[in-house]
Amino acid sequence: MLNKYARAFFTRVLTPFAAFLIRRGVSPDTVTLIGTAGVVAGALVFYPRGEFFWGTVVITLFVFSDLVDGNMARQLGRSSRWGAFLDSTLDRVADGAIFGGFALWYAGTGNNVMLCAVSIFCLASGQVVSYTKARGESIGLPVAVNGLVERAERLVISLVAAGFAGLHAFGVPGIQVLLPIALWIVAVGSLVTLVQRVVTVRREAAEADAAAALQKGENASQGTSHGSGAAQ
Ligand SMILES: CCCCCCCC/C=C\CCCCCCCC(=O)OC[C@H](COP(=O)(O)O[C@@H]1[C@H](O)[C@H](OP(=O)(O)O)[C@@H](O)[C@H](O)[C@H]1O)OC(=O)CCCCCCC/C=C\CCCCCCCC
Ligand SMILES: Nc1ccn([C@@H]2O[C@H](COP(=O)(O)O)[C@@H](O)[C@H]2O)c(=O)n1
Ligand SMILES: [Mg+2]
Ligand SMILES: [Mg+2]
């Protein structure tokens, strides 16, 4: 949903910054790499210590690089297969660090096995949700569904909640409950999205296999009729 509705807005907002980086000679790949490094550092330095506010501030500063790199590539007319591969692969690394950071907090000082498990579930299900699309597309299917909770939703829900939950350290009472709520929402939403995508791939695969079988039958019968024609 965010990918559909918010992307156009952020493209407009970030285009001048992307153009500025291009003028400075920065490449899209550099932005992809530095953006990911910043997200990973923000997540793994701050979240395991329960410093959710500062972790979210650092991650937010870097996470928009994921919209800037593609914008730069398009402005340069240099969108490439390598760039698409690098972008998607490093997305998985960044997501792993964010939900891994939450899991490390709950496994340590946060001391909550259930929320540690929910964080790990968010991490794993997010990766599998993305994989369903990548694998479906790699076997030639359109995977014409996005689903309830895509990457943008996973990030916005968990980062907004973590940022506000972090205000607990500045004396705001009760607000830390937002993070567990967000993690449960992301976990359930990811599960629903996974089911949506698997059902879509199953239907598209069945349709594609049926069309291929039909085509094979037609080819065979044409081959037979040609063959019998030649014999006559
Ligand atoms: C007082 C409190 C302090 C709070 C501190 C700060 C809080 C800041 C809070 C939030 C900021 C969140 C920002 C999150 C921005 C996310 C942007 C982003 O990177 O989105 C990525 C997404 C996908 O990009 P790609 O096409 O490159 O990736 C594809 C994707 O990964 C696919 O995965 P799948 O979806 O299938 O799981 C892969 O399949 C594919 O391979 C891969 O290529 O980009 C978008 O979706 C574009 C839309 C982005 C929309 C961002 C909206 C941000 C909106 C609101 C910010 C809210 C701020 C509120 C602050 C409130 C606090 C005061
Ligand atoms: N280093 C990069 C990063 C991205 N691309 C291209 O942009 C597409 C992703 O666009 P986003 O707006 O989601 O970043 C990606 O599929 C590539 O075509 C690139 O070329 N090099
Ligand atoms: Mg990107
Ligand atoms: Mg990306």
UniProtKB/TrEMBL annotation:
One of the GO biological process terms: phospholipid biosynthetic process
Subunit and interaction comment: Homodimer.
Family listed: Belongs to the CDP-alcohol phosphatidyltransferase class-I family.
Catalysed conversion reaction: a CDP-1,2-diacyl-sn-glycerol + 1D-myo-inositol 3-phosphate = a 1,2-diacyl-sn-glycero-3-phospho-(1D-myo-inositol-3-phosphate) + CMP + H(+); 1,2-di-(9Z-octadecenoyl)-sn-glycero-3-cytidine-5'-diphosphate + 1D-myo-inositol 3-phosphate = 1,2-di-(9Z-octadecenoyl)-sn-glycero-3-phospho-(1D-myo-inositol-3-phosphate) + CMP + H(+)
Transmembrane helix as UniProt keyword: yes
Lineage summary: Bacteria, Bacillati, Actinomycetota, Actinomycetes, Kitasatosporales
Cofactor: Mg(2+)
Organism: Streptomyces nodosus
Cofactor binding summary note: Contains a di-nuclear catalytic Mg(2+) center.
Superkingdom of origin: Bacteria
Keyword Lipid biosynthesis on entry: yes
Transmembrane feature ranges: 30-46, 112-131, 152-171, 177-195
Protein name: Phosphatidylinositol phosphate synthase
Annotated Mg(2+) 1 binding sites: 66, 69, 87
Function: Catalyzes the conjugation of the 1'-hydroxyl group of D-myo-inositol-3-phosphate (also named L-myo-inositol-1-phosphate) with a lipid tail of cytidine diphosphate diacylglycerol (CDP-DAG), forming phosphatidylinositol phosphate (PIP) and CMP. PIP is a precursor of phosphatidylinositol (PI) which is an essential lipid required for cell wall formation.
Enzyme class, spelled out: transferase
Principal subcellular localisation of the protein: membrane
Keywords, alphabetical: Cell membrane, Lipid biosynthesis, Lipid metabolism, Magnesium, Membrane, Metal-binding, Phospholipid biosynthesis, Phospholipid metabolism, Transferase, Transmembrane, Transmembrane helix
Residues the entry annotates as binding Mg(2+) 2: 66, 87, 91
Entry annotation: catalytic residues: 91 (proton acceptor)
